[in-house]
Amino acid sequence: MTIEIAGLAPERIVFDISPLAELGVALHALTEPGHHPGLHGWATATSAGLKPDLADRLCEADFLWRTIFSDVFMPFAGLTAAEGGGRPGATLAEDLDLLDRLDDELFVAAALEFTCASHYSAGGYSALSDERRRKQALDLAATRGPRQLDFTRRLLADPAGVRAWVRRLFEDCDEAFFADTWSRTAGRLAADARRKTDLLRRKGLAETLHAASPALAVDEERGRITADKLAQGRTTAVDPAVGAGLTLVPTSFGWPHLLVLHAPGWRPVIHYPVSAPELTGPGTVQLLERRMEALAHPLRMRLCRHLARAAHTTGELAETCGITAPEVSRHLAVLKKAQLVTTRRRGRYVLHQLDVAAVARIGSDFLETVLR
């Protein structure tokens, strides 16, 4: 994952905190506690305290933060400075106001990332205005499940109505649990942003990025930041259309994810975790050997990355990885034998997914790599 920064003025690289971005990661931690071993206590207590109506509404849209981290959580990156973008809001209400300023094309494209993640870097027209993209979004939503298909249909038919529904959902989350959570974490995140800003001024970009995450590096000769992720993508921080700039946002809930917003037409954002928990080690030696042998193949590592974020069909994995369905099936068989992948049927679709709890027992390095 690369971010072009050649010619970017140092003052255009900023560290800032975002309530809405933190809410997105908190919702992910609630939905996928297996990704966040250090947050089990918080997730259990918070989930138990949710009113049934809010819990049901969160289930209606959890694919916005379960399988991907939708760009709707960072609307400041999709707005130009003239539109009030460039920096997150100081409060959740201000961040939601920025979300309201996104035009329908940007909002719909961001909200439908779960249907077209493999085309994320391509840009172009959204499913709102392009019939081919519309059909593709509906077809892929159908493979994800009835909730995803219903959401996609509603969004394409009435984007204004869905936008209002999403804002109300986030406001109710704030009232139910996030206001208290943010009051306890905002100070720590703001302090980290200040420390990184001071480090950038004193020590330069390379040392500052490494302090934010060892997975970040800068090639000063080429004018490029690299994020060491299994995902591939590229963007630029010097796009005149949206204004030059790079924003780095710390998160208390994010580990092991290192998120890079790299959609065309959006200002790049790096969302980095400020801490990592201690994890237990692997199980038996025999089981560990079997699993390590299964993971020795680089393509199976790539499959694990996709399967860690969402359940996929064999056909989807074949298209994403650029190989045939029989090849995918052979690699999945090896992963299943190592008890790393589970399979379930949904209607006519057979879905495969990584067993994150099993992966966590291998060790934090592997878990962090596939989920980064």
How does this model look, in words?
50% of the residues lie in helices and 12% in strands. By secondary structure, it is of the alpha/beta class. It has a 4-stranded mixed beta sheet, with helices on one face. It has a 4-stranded mixed beta sheet with strand order 2-6-8-7. The longest helix is centred in the middle third of the chain and has 45 residues, at 159-203. The chain is globular and about 50 Å long.
Q: Give the helix tally.
A: 15
What fraction of residues sit in β-strands?
5-15%
Query: How many extended strands?
Result: 10
What general form does the structure show?
globular
Largest sheet: 4 strands, mixed
Helicity range: 40-55%
Which strand order do you get reading across the main beta sheet?
A: 3-4-1-5
Separation of the first and last Cα atoms? 11 Å
Integer average pLDDT = 86
Provide a short characterization of the protein structure.
It contains 15 helices and ten strands. By secondary structure, it is α/β, with parallel strands linked by helices.
List keywords for this structure.
single chain; 372 residues; alpha/beta; four-stranded mixed beta sheet
